[in-house]
Write a structure and sequence with these properties.
The complex is a heterotetramer, with 2 copies of chain A and 2 copies of chain B. By secondary structure, chain A is of the alpha/beta class. Chain A contains 10 helices and 8 strands. A 6-stranded parallel sheet of chain A has the order 4-3-5-6-8-7, sandwiched between helices. Chain B starts with a strand and ends with a helix. The chains are: A alpha/beta, B alpha/beta. The structure holds thiamine diphosphate (TPP) (2 copies) and magnesium ion (2 copies). Chains B, C: This is Alpha-ketoacid dehydrogenase subunit beta.
């Protein structure tokens, strides 16, 4: 991956130019996995676009953070993870949730604040959780969930279950204390935690480079925990799939944690309110041109997948997104009594006798 | 006199103080280039330059540590903790260091700093981005705590906070950022520790903070049509607490209601009620009542959030019921 | 029946539960090899092995994160935060994650974990190693909060905490570690949310917690010689709160005094007084009084610390004065 | 420095064997500085011994954490720092406080809880502070003060004062989040902060090695902040002095922060209550044999300083410790009204009007 520098108001920042991705056509990924990866990319892409549309229609409440442009990471890990592995996501967690097999309708319904939402409307976009699918929560305060993922990994190790805990977080998260505590803890106790930094070059509005002592915010910290630096192209689903498969295998066999830095870019702003104007137009354009969905479609075409097969997948996904939208929209508002349930294990919220 | 939004008033207040005193610095996540994620610091980078207005990494302990160390050595920093909920990631620096240092060193160190933060609910942001935590801060000796409810007070209290030689936690209410209000021209400087009677009344004292102030006022208007004449006090400053204004009102009306956004247990109203139940004991005609969010995390769905935050209707109902006890 | 110290009782309680349920784990700084810096976990490493008893790095967020993640996935961890003051460095995981996760996920995730910690003053450790912060925890929905005052209760409440499917903050009082008391043989399991009347009385209710319980009892003995018959209630559990026992006592005696080690503002007593001032309003004969540490950080010198923590003499004086108001 | 491994109950840990210290006789340290360093070593040693005696006499209240065996670091930095530089210390801060020129009597009186104590009895052993001498506080909760030191460095930079903030902390502190936040912050903004890790191989009772992902807890993390690893012999006062001088000069001239790891050992337990029995006897003996005071005395002798000059320094320091003890002991208890002062800038503690 070449990272020539472009400059803009905030300083100098790397822009990925399309590398010779054709060389990656030769990566050892089975054809059916590739089809699966493409389906996932489409799901994540089309879902997020729909979420954005619903936001424009003022149906999505609160905030939401989309993964448009970053889909290859969730697709690759989703395809490589074992059914009982654990996912720990952030507020930018739609893609990671869906990629574990959580149906779209309850996720959309949660964004709309409906009773048929994934958490009945009590969590919202930033806290998607589906324990049944191994999605152990989406965490909206930077840092904590890296430590929490370790706990699930520790428990898996004690139970000898072979499960791995995979924790996704952004570049900005590498500068907070909990990152350091979690990485050292995982390494010291050789926990099966895979830490995945989705480096999209920006925190909310500030470029990561302006406030970070090293060039590669995660990879350049790996050695501080006795780990290998893994710096990969987060826009290439095959790269992400093979990276995920290797990392998971290593963690699963007891070799301790893995730290992956996947470089990517978000097409839109940080959250619903942000048009993302602080980024230079050429930078955005360069990354739009290196779109993970298009890149992968081109590869599949080169590898002989028929245009009509690809189009069928796209159309199918589109239908499912439409159906999920209809289902979500038809959900009733939550009963207000629900606000008083599940504070405690007894199902209620009483703090007195 | 200008009509400003609450969020504009924050920048206006900061600007006023940064103009006056070059030791005043501003640091936080996205406060410079982006003008703040809530746009409360818009224009300050251009006006005061990158030395005095600093975009930081996501590292709240580093942010507050830097503010503290600078305050100890001659500066007067204003640090932003983006959402009040995030105080939890740097609570140690706030409560164990900033709050205690002057005392532990027998007065050797001064801590003239402000920590500004957006708190409160009503924006459907769920349990981790909606908390009102003024009560957390009130419980810690060594911290001053203010929450303005109008654009004018934002400017005046910010100026007072910046000029104070003690650490001040300055809570902005996210639900008020878009609210507009008249702000007089020229320098505005309030005094910390002064509550304001927003509406005089004889039958009951209603003490409110932040977003609950406009709600309490609206409720008072409705109650007036029923013949219940309520005094609404904007508490504004929890530490120092204007017990003179608050308790004399309670003694006069014989009734106290607090309207609090925080969860029920140990909300700031518990302190006020405890004070009234002690010092106004013989004047009370009916039990003091706290109108609060129930003791639960905040849900995100709009109808659920509306159901649990104190609403105008709930204030009306509770006061009516309380007065007729 | 064995005579145990309070610190031994901690290990006894943990042992009882770890024996019973192999999902119970223990982790923290120096809890294994050294048996805890307060020796409250002595012998557990030998008995349960290094897989279940883990010495951690100095990384409280990592510790509580590990406990939380393990609790979410089938374990029942007990994590130690050495001094209660250190909760501030990991407060985010406690209040924003552990406390809210069940609610935010609509009941999908369970949080059966205990965080044990040594709190409280009287050991001349100064402002950063002496705090009583039960009130911080009480203010956060989703946390249960207990503080035992006797070795027997240490065992019973620890067992109840470990068996509870909700997160429990278990505050040990450092000033009581050396105190001895009789502990019955065999399994002891208490119920969370039960206060205990340590001394029945008719003239006033005195509610106390932790180290303040023996002081309140001693004060009650002295007051009895003056003809003031005080009921002393050991609150034990702040969440859930045994309002039945507490408020019925207040209604009966007509008077409430709290004895709190925390600084004055928003100590746990403010909640209790607020409840009494509302629900026992018509029964109160004199104002409710809170006997607390003043709203200051704790000083380290012995005579200064003694001057500010509620003492037997101060309790006697305040109750005497209050009863005769 | 050779670090062969010794093993004991808790795992395998490095023991320093006396390196060929004679080679260090040739370090470029002026003779008068060497005399000054020796005086400092003696002061710190004799003071801490006295503190321990007073503890045994039950006169020292609360807790105390001694630097016996670790004196060379405080001596070296104390000698190299500019008068207006800032010191940020921990609960193990007696030596760093004294080495900035704070008189012994108020420090001892503070340990005794007397009115003539450095903070009038309100701080205690763990919070020694003397702003007048640049000692900007001793901090008893791990981690925070690394962040605070940055603030003083930032302020110095803004004021153009040329001051450097020096922050001392232990090996165990390198695993807490605040360490990471502070180091990145300092490096990102090129602050004149010198971070000094006093690696005495142990946290309270647990060896640092058992819980740390890397061998050298500070030096092996330097690269994560774009810094050079500096791993030095913390028992050699000349090494510490030259290390300090270089680090301070670099920070002062605007080259950004410096991270130093100084390897050392505490002769006693962690705090007053700890006999330190968890350490293998051979390890303790090896380090006792590599005592920084003896090592330095031997060097001075080799370099031609007369025995009687050394003895005179020792006796003089002894006298001063005795005088300080007498002065401290003669102090009255603080007036209890003092407990209510200095919560606020107005000198009082009132929270209401
Ligand atoms: C402790 C904390 N500080 C600040 C925030 C506000 N915040 C939310 S997302 C974000 C940027 C995160 O950047 P990064 O880690 O790169 O993730 P990205 O959003 O780019 O995926 C910030 C500062 C937060 N949620 N938590
Ligand atoms: C946040 C926090 N956690 C735990 C402690 C308790 N504690 C005090 S000193 C210490 C060991 C510190 O080890 P190290 O950093 O190596 O310093 P040393 O005492 O060896 O000089 C611990 C765990 C603390 N003070 N603060
Ligand atoms: Mg990012
Ligand atoms: Mg150490």
């Amino acid at each position: 991956m070449t990272l020539p520098l472009a400059s803009h108001d905030y300083g100098a920042h790397p822009t990925v130019l399309p590398p010779s991705v054709t060389a990656r056509d030769r990566l050892q990924v089975p054809q059916e996995t590739r089809i699966d990866l493409y389906r996932r990319l489409q799901e994540l892409r089309q879902f997020e676009k729909r979420a954005y549309d619903l936001f424009l229609q003022q149906l999505v409440k609160g905030t939401s953070h989309l993964s448009l442009g970053m889909e290859a990471i969730a697709a690759g890990f989703g395809a490589a993870m074992r059914k009982d592995d654990y996912t720990f996501a952030t507020y930018r967690g739609h893609a990671h949730t869906l990629s574990r097999g959580v149906p779209m309708a309850p996720v959309l319904a949660e964004l709309l604040g409906r009773a048929n939402g994934l958490m009945g409307g009590k969590g919202g976009s930033m806290h998607l959780t589906s324990v049944e699918h191994g999605v152990m929560g989406s965490y909206a305060i930077i840092g904590a969930h890296l430590c929490v993922a370790n706990g699930a990994a520790w428990s898996a190790k004690l139970r000898g279950s072979g499960q791995v805990a995979v924790c996704f977080f952004g570049d900005g998260t590498t500068n907070i204390g909990a990152f350091h505590e979690a990485l050292n803890f995982a390494a010291a106790f050789r926990l099966p935690t895979v830490f995945v930094c989705e480096n999209n070059l920006y925190m909310e509005y500030t470029p990561i480079r302006d406030v970070t002592a090293v060039e590669r915010p995660a990879a350049d910290r790996a050695a501080a925990y006795g780990l290998e630096p893994l710096h990969v192209d987060g826009n290439d689903a095959d790269v992400m799939y093979t990276t995920a498969a290797t990392a998971l295998a290593r963690a699963r066999e007891g070799a301790g944690p893995v730290l992956v830095e996947a470089v990517t870019y978000r097409h839109g702003g940080h959250s619903r309110a942000d048009p993302g104007k602080y980024r230079p137009a050429e930078e955005v354009a360069a990354w739009q041109a290196y779109d993970p969905v298009h890149l992968y479609r081109d590869r599949l075409t080169r590898l002989g997948v028929a245009e009509e097969d690809l189009a069928r997948i796209e159309a199918e996904v589109g239908r499912r997104v439409d159906e999920a939208t209809a289902e979500a929209k038809s959900g009733p508002l939550p009963d207000t009594a629900e606000a008083f349930t599940d504070v405690w294990a007894d199902g209620g919220s009483s703090w007195r006798n | 006199m200008a009509e400003l939004t609450y969020r504009q008033a924050v920048a206006r207040g900061l600007s006023q103080e940064m103009d006056r005193d070059e030791r005043v610095l501003l640091l936080g996540e996205d406060v410079a280039g982006a003008g703040g994620v809530f746009k409360t610091t818009a224009g300050l980078l251009d006006r005061f330059g990158p030395e005095r207005v600093l975009d930081t990494p996501i590292a709240e302990q580093a942010i507050l540590g830097a503010a503290m160390g600078a305050a100890m050595t001659g500066m007067r920093p204003v640090a932003e903790i983006m959402f009040a909920d995030f105080f939890a990631v740097c609570w140690d620096i706030v409560v164990n260091e900033i709050a205690k240092m002057r005392y532990m060193t027998n007065g050797q160190l001064s801590m003239p700093l402000v920590i500004k933060s957006g708190g409160g609910g009503s924006l459907r942001l769920g349990a981790q981005h909606s908390q009102s935590i003024e009560n957390w801060a009130m419980a810690v000796p060594g911290l001053k705590v203010v929450t303005p409810s109008t654009p004018r007070d934002v400017v005046g209290l910010m100026a007072a906070a910046v000029r104070c030689d003690d650490p001040v936690l300055f809570f902005e209410h996210k639900g008020l950022y878009a609210a507009k209000g008249a702000v007089p021209d020229g320098e505005i400087v309030d005094e910390l520790g002064r509550a304001v009677v927003r509406r005089p009344g004889r039958d009951a004292t209603v003490a409110a903070l932040g977003l609950m102030v406009p709600r309490a006022l609206e409720a008072a208007g409705l109650l007036a049509t029923e013949g219940i004449d309520v005094e609404v006090i904007d508490v504004r400053s929890l530490v120092p607490l204007d017990t003179r204004t608050l308790l004399s009102s309670v003694s006069r009306t014989g009734r106290l209601f607090t309207v609090e956004e925080n969860p029920r247990l140990l909300g700031w109203g518990a302190e006020l009620v405890s004070l009234a139940a002690d010092e106004c004991f013989w004047d009370l005609e009916t039990p003091c009542r706290r109108i609060t969010t129930p003791h639960i995390p905040l849900p995100s769905a709009d109808n659920l959030e509306d159901a649990v935050l104190p609403s105008v209707a709930r204030i009306v109902e509770e006061v009516r019921k309380g007065v007729h006890t």
